[in-house]
Design goal:
Layout (H helix, E strand, L loop, with lengths): L4 E6 L2 E2 L5 H8 L5 E7 L1 E2 L10 E3 L2 H8 L3 E5 L1 H6 L1 H7 L2 E5 L3 H9 L2 H12 L2 E4 L2 H9 L8 E3 L22 E6 L8 H11 L6 E6 L10 H13 L6 E5 L3 H8 L4 E4 L15 H8 L4 E3 L11 H4 L8 H13 L4 H14 L2 H14 L2
Parallel strand pairs: 1-3, 1-6, 2-4, 3-5, 6-7, 7-8, 8-9, 10-11, 10-13, 11-12, 13-14
Helix pairs in contact: 2-4, 8-9, 8-13
Length: 363
């Protein structure tokens, strides 16, 4: 029998609707990994209920948790938690998820020195994929021997495979989902849909996501989305659902033919870092994905779907990819390749076992 390992996870909030992947990361760890969670505030806790969640300081939680390892989620908090981990004498694992890699050092160059210090003092650094790993090593200076690629897994039991089909003449139902950040490329997605209406006039769009009531960064993007819908005469063809719980996103997925998610590097330097988990989830359900070659997105899809990816900010390319998809005589191979690829590389249970192995290697 494997020795029990006690984990303390830190995330600032438990839990944003856009961070459901963190809920899966923790709940799919094997039974010999006992997790507690400390956060600064509670959000949507009823949707992401796990035992051992507390509000408080990392230092106090470490004192009473009996933890062997502290796992800080998001690297800026990993830097802030270094002293607490060292004072408690526990191993410290830090995960990068995106904005810390490119955006933080641009907004404040002091983060370069902070991360350099952090890499020397923590025990392991995790990231989602090969592109992000290369950036963390080459741009931020992480020693390769401390860096592990840990892919964000999805709960395949809650994402049954139902391959989509579409026939000429029926409405083409397109799903877009994400927070209204510039990097998500939603205005480009809408422009691409407007272009295909010359060949496929019967198109409907559903958008899940919003800017948030207090976000000054996302408000201009929301304005751009709304103005694009108006300018491209898409208002009557588009349903805006706002932020929704994860189960509603999945429910909507099965009502749509394709997922459109054209992420790109924003003007302020923000990137996905890795890949949107929604792309993995939507592909797992049996829905084709039209997206870009941004960051680690190509690594989330099977070969046939990967061939439909286009460059960043390429509206014409997105439109052509949608047309190419609708002209395929069958989507069966594309969709089954996606599902197999995700089962092999992004299963939450499989990734939970791999993460547990990383934890064990540190003790």
């Amino acid at each position: 029998m494997k020795q029990q390992i006690n984990l303390l996870h830190f995330n600032y909030s438990w839990l944003s609707l856009t961070e459901a992947w963190l809920y899966n990361l923790i709940r799919f760890l094997p039974p010999d990994i006992q997790s507690q969670i400390v956060c600064k505030k509670m959000d949507n806790s009823s949707s992401f209920d796990l035992p051992g969640i507390q509000i408080g300081s990392v230092g106090r939680a470490l004192k009473f948790s009996g933890a062997h390892i502290l796992h800080s989620h998001f690297a800026d908090f990993g830097w802030r938690n270094m002293n607490a981990a060292e004072q408690a004498g526990v191993k410290h694992v830090v995960s990068f998820y995106g904005h810390e890699v490119c955006l933080l050092p641009l907004l404040d160059p002091d983060w370069n020195a902070r991360f350099h210090d952090m890499f020397a003092r923590v025990d392991a650094v995790l990231c989602e994929g090969e592109h992000m790993a290369q950036c963390i090593i080459e741009d931020l200076g992480c020693p390769p021997e401390k860096l592990y690629i840990h892919r964000l897994g999805v709960d395949l039991e809650r994402l049954p495979y139902r391959p989509r089909t579409w026939t000429i003449g029926e409405p083409l139902r397109i799903l877009i989902a994400g927070s209204f950040r510039e990097k998500k490329g939603i205005p480009y997605a809408l422009e691409a849909v407007a272009k295909i209406r010359k060949e496929i006039p019967n198109v409907t769009i559903t958008i899940i996501g919003d800017a948030g009531p207090t976000s000054t960064r996302m408000a201009p993007v929301k304005n751009k989305i709304m103005s694009t819908m108006k300018d491209k005469q898409l208002i009557e063809h588009t349903t805006l659902l706002g932020f929704q719980p994860h189960h509603i996103l999945v429910q909507e997925a099965y009502r749509h033919h394709l997922f459109l998610s054209p992420s790109f590097t924003a003007d302020d330097g923000e990137t996905e870092g890795g890949a949107p988990v929604t792309i993995i989830e939507m592909a797992a359900t049996g829905m084709p994905v039209i997206s870009t070659t941004h960051c680690d997105i190509p690594g989330t899809l099977g070969l046939s779907n990967k061939e439909l990816l286009v460059g960043e900010r390429d509206v014409d390319g997105l439109a052509q990819a949608i047309i190419r998809l609708t002209q395929m005589p069958s989507w069966d191979q594309l969709l089954s390749e996606n599902r197999r690829h995700i089962e092999q590389n992004f299963s939450a249970s499989g990734q939970g076992c791999k993460l547990a192995a990383i934890y064990r290697s540190l003790l």
